[in-house]
Amino acid sequence: MTGTQGTSAGGPLGLDPDLLSILACPDTHHTPLTVDEAAGELVCATCDRGFPVREGIPVLLLDEARHRTS
């Protein structure tokens, strides 16, 4: 019997911790991203953009990101 039991990423937002360690902002400065679990997004500390995570997949498109500050 085969299945996906035990294959969940186990990291924040369902992301693999190894993947999180290499993800960076796609803008020109490439700042490493941090996790905001409450907002369900990855955050760039430099430009303050929030990148959504949808069904465990980070959406690192500048057009899909939101500016977190007003």
TrEMBL record:
Any single GO CC term annotated in Swiss-Prot or TrEMBL for this entry: cytosol
Pfam families referenced in this protein's UniProt entry, alphabetically: Trm112p
HAMAP family, per the entry: UPF0434 (MF_01187)
Assigned protein family: Belongs to the UPF0434 family.
Protein known as: UPF0434 protein BLASA_4110
Protein source organism: Blastococcus saxobsidens (strain DD2)
Biological classification of the source: Bacteria, Bacillati, Actinomycetota, Actinomycetes, Geodermatophilales
